[in-house]
């Protein structure tokens, strides 16, 4: 087993260095900058509009009411399912890992990636709704594969290129569902639960290479829970997500605010460290090796994408199942998704780590880059909570529960993403085969080392990102056109035909379909 894991690690390292090199990072951030510029900084200039159309309508029936249409879910369920997949270990262990490797400055670059990622996610969702279609079961299907094949592929001389990129995207999406959507998440669940709720009779029994019987049992439990939900399809996943996601986000943010509030004297110092170390990382020394700017930026961007998934083309596969017919409205839910994930949840995590116990001697020393004894990136946030709630390890147990909820719902969301990619390649009637395979991969997350599970997830993310962003970049003028069409109708009151779908037949159906509020 050791030799197999070493081989996997070596191969993955080679691929990772390519997809997350200069080309991948330039493509990722560049796409966000281009879409932001072309839409005239929509996320800022129309902040009132997208807040009103998203969080401002959370309690409206047209947003939360369940859809009776086959394979269709409410906008709120779509958001919760997307957040279920994005608000995962990246928001806790991912932020901790970024800080441990790249210093406090990595947080700044996570913010930068998220700011431009809002518009990348917006563009993905606009295109997802515009190019979606009904599958053989009468359910909506959308995603990067459709706008690559039917959008990019319709351009002169690009027919085969579009189809090849669509197939590659689907293959990478399925692989990513095994990495970011299964093994990486389960690894963090097992690590945190095993430490916070130790059962020595089981954890003392080593099966192989540091993997205890307790780890395997925990992995088997998660696998069983995953099977019970994901094998029931999207509606069951969405029903679970809309109940768990709001609860877990509010619970974690509230707990984080308590920790930050207790350590309020360090807030300004922590923010200063974030901004200073983003541009002067030579002040940060980890293990005697000075971190360089590129390392800080890379960690910020990689963990930012791991957290909010903007640019991967993943969440569009569930947003496309929304019963909303306006592409721009679903795009605005995409903006809110990235905002809530990174600007809110990830920021809370970063401030918890950086303020807990002081900047030079708490759980993480900003100056030396050293983690306090007994902690790893996976348990750092739990340690920060324990500085305020030390009794019986309550703080660590709270984070372990939060980690379980965050990571488990991510597994559920990514099961849907992978099944939609499988559907595109093999048909809707066979998606149960993929779900079974996805369930089986869960157990591997319990036996892989933390760093390997994380690195594999990074690699699959990068591979998935490339074809998707090529499609978004190519079709960005169309995104601008659809956006202008919506604003002319909604803000200016012009009587022009909406741009709902590229297919004339679906366009007619959407024109006739009644939706209370768009």
What does this entry look like structurally?
This protein has helices spanning 2-19, 22-38, 42-45, 47-53, 61-64, 75-86, 93-102, 105-131, 144-149, 159-196, 200-203, 213-230, 234-262, 267-279, 293-308, 316-319, 327-355, 380-386, 394-426, 431-445, 450-490, 504-512, and strands at residues 133-134, 140-141, 206-208, 211-212, 285-286, 289-290. It has a single domain, classed as Up-down Bundle (Amino acid/polyamine transporter I), CATH 1.20.1740.10. With 518 residues, the protein is mostly helical. The longest helix has 41 residues, at 450-490. It is globular and about 65 Å long. Strand 3 (206-208) and strand 4 form a beta hairpin. The N and C termini lie far apart (54 Å). The chain has a two-stranded antiparallel ribbon with strand order 1-2. It has a two-stranded antiparallel sheet with strand order 3-4. It has a two-stranded antiparallel ribbon with strand order 5-6. Helix content is 70%, strand content 3%.
Reported CATH architecture: Up-down Bundle
Mean pLDDT: 81
Roughly how many Å is the radius of gyration?
Answer: 22 Å
User: What global shape is seen?
Assistant: globular
* H/E element sequence: HHHHHHHHEEHHHEEHHHEEHHHHHHHH
Distance between the termini: 54 Å
Number of strands: 6
The biggest sheet, with number of strands, parallel, antiparallel or mixed sense and barrel status, is: 2 strands, antiparallel
CATH superfamily: Amino acid/polyamine transporter I
Question: Structural class given helices, strands, pairing?
Answer: mainly alpha
Percent of residues in helical segments? 55-70%
CATH class: Mainly Alpha
The tally of structural domains comes to 1
The largest sheet has its strands arranged as: 1-2
Number of helices: 22
Low-pLDDT sequence parts: 282-291
């Amino acid at each position: 087993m050791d030799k197999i894991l070493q081989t996997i690690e070596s191969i993955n390292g080679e691929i990772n260095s390519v997809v997350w090199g200069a080309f991948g990072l330039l493509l990722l951030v560049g796409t966000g900058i281009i879409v932001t510029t072309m839409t005239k900084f929509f996320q800022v200039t129309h902040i009132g509009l997208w807040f009103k159309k998203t969080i401002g309508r959370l309690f409206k029936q047209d947003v939360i009411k369940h859809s009776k249409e086959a394979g269709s879910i409410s906008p709120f369920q779509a958001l919760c399912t997307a957040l279920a997949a994005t608000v995962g270990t990246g928001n806790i262990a991912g932020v901790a890992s970024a800080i441990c490797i790249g210093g406090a400055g990595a947080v700044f670059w996570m913010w930068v990636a998220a700011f431009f990622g809002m518009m990348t996610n917006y563009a993905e969702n606009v295109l997802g709704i515009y190019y979606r279609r009904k599958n053989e079961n009468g359910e909506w299907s959308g995603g990067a594969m459709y706008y690559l094949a039917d959008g990019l592929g319709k351009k002169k001389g690009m027919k085969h290129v579009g189809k090849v990129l669509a197939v590659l995207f689907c293959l990478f999406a399925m692989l990513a569902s095994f990495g970011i959507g299964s093994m990486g998440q389960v690894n963090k669940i097992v690590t945190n639960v095993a430490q916070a709720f130790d059962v020595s009779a089981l954890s003392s029994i080593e099966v192989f290479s540091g993997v205890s019987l307790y780890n395997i049992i925990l992995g088997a439990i998660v696998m069983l829970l995953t099977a019970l939900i994901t094998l029931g399809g999207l509606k069951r996943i969405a029903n679970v997500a809309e109940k768990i996601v709001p609860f877990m986000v509010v619970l974690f943010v509230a707990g984080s605010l308590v920790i930050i509030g207790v350590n309020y004297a360090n807030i300004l110092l922590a923010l200063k460290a974030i901004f200073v170390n983003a541009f002067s990382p030579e002040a940060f020394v980890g293990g005697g090796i000075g971190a360089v700017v590129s390392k800080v930026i890379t960690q910020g961007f990689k963990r930012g994408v791991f957290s909010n998934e903007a640019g991967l083309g993943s969440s569009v596969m569930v947003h496309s199942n929304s019963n909303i017919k306006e592409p721009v409205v679903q795009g605005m839910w995409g903006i809110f998704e990235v905002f809530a994930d990174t600007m809110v949840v990830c920021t809370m995590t970063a401030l918890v780590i950086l303020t807990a116990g002081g900047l030079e001697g708490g759980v993480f020393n900003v100056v030396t880059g050293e983690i306090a004894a007994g902690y790893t990136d996976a348990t750092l946030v739990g340690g920060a909570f324990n500085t305020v709630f030390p009794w019986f390890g309550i703080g660590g147990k709270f984070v372990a529960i939060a980690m379980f909820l965050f990571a488990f719902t991510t597994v559920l969301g990514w099961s849907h993403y992978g099944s939609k990619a499988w559907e595109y390649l093999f048909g809707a009637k066979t998606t149960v085969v993929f779900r079974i395979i996805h369930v089986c991969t869960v157990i591997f997350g319990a036996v892989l080392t933390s760093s390997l599970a994380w690195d594999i997830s990074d690699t699959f993310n990068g591979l998935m990102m490339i074809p998707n962003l090529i499609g978004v970049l190519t079709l960005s003028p169309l995104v601008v056109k659809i956006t202008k069409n919506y604003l002319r109708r909604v803000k200016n009151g012009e009587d022009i035909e909406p741009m709902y779908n590229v297919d004339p037949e679906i366009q007619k159906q959407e024109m006739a379909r009644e939706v209370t509020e768009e």
